[in-house]
Amino acid sequence: MGEEELTLSYLEKILKVNETINLTRIDSWEQALVLHVEDSLVGLDELNDAPDGLYGDLGSGGGFPGVPLGIYSGRKTILVDSVKKKMKAVEDVLNELNLACQIDTYDGRIEDLAKERPASFSVLTARALSQLGSLLELASPLLCKGGRLICYKARLEDSEVSTALQVCDLVGMRLISRRKVLLSDGETIREIVVFEKHSKPKIKLPRRVGLAQKNPLCI
């Protein structure tokens, strides 16, 4: 199967599983094509621009954007989500499509993965997961030097960017690019914001599980 056919087969199977397990709020094929497949692939150029090596999708849910990006980039991929039933369902679909040798799952917390595999990832994505400042804190201990964090945002306020830039200094990251895309439905705006790890954090990371969201840095 080619990349497009494989991605569409994955989407079809996920929507079928979604009838019994809540993997995504999107249940129509037409919507899913835009909001899962097209949206996922918006960040492909940024992913391909990152250093070679392991790719991780944080808060992957039903496998978006991780699976389409993994298929199209050919990278070894790990989908990270703490909801075990979601990861089990995704894993089953990956096995059906013979993708499990390339795309793996991790059904635990991001902070725990950072302890198990510090500085192991060359690139990470996060879509609709958390504020930029929290994402930077979670990503930094996972990334190798020069590694990239690619954030998918729908509505990005100046205050969120300002806070993220403060956090950057603490966690050894820097902003390297930012761009907006209008999806083919003519109404969904996606902003892709990319950070790069350039030095060791000035504080000990990861902090205790949940603190990045409950007690963000610089707030």
Write a short abstract of this structure.
The chain has 219 residues and is an alpha/beta fold.
Topology:
Blueprint: H1 3-17, H2 29-41, H3 44-49, E1 55-58, H4 66-73, E2 77-80, H5 84-96, E3 103-106, H6 110-116, E4 121-127, H7 132-139, E5 143-153, H8 158-171, E6 173-182, E7 189-197, H9 211-214
Parallel strand pairs: 1-2, 1-4, 2-3, 4-5
Antiparallel strand pairs: 5-7, 6-7
Helix pairs in contact: 1-2, 1-4, 1-5, 7-8
Shape: globular
Radius of gyration in whole Å, from Cα?
16 Å
pLDDT below 50 for ≥5 consecutive residues: which ranges?
A: none
- The CATH class name reads Alpha Beta
Number of domains: 1
Q: Can you give the mean pLDDT?
A: 94
Helix share of residues?
Answer: 40-55%
How far apart are the termini?
48 Å
The percentage of residues in β strands lies in 15-25%
- Secondary-structure element pattern, one letter each: HHHEHEHEHEHEHEEH
> What do we call the CATH homologous superfamily?
Vaccinia Virus protein VP39
Side-by-side strand order of the widest sheet: 3-2-1-4-5-7-6
Q: Main sheet?
A: 7 strands, mixed
Work out the number of β strands: 7
Can you describe what's shown?
This protein has about 220 residues and is α/β, with parallel strands linked by helices. It has one domain: Vaccinia Virus protein VP39 (Rossmann fold), CATH 3.40.50. Helices cover about 40% and strands about 20% of the residues. The chain has helices spanning about 5-15, 30-40, 45-50, 65-75, 85-95, 110-115, 130-140, 160-170, 210-215, and strands at about 55-60, 75-80, 105, 120-125, 145-155, 175-180, 190-195. α4 (about 65-75) links the parallel β1 and β2. The mean pLDDT is about 95.
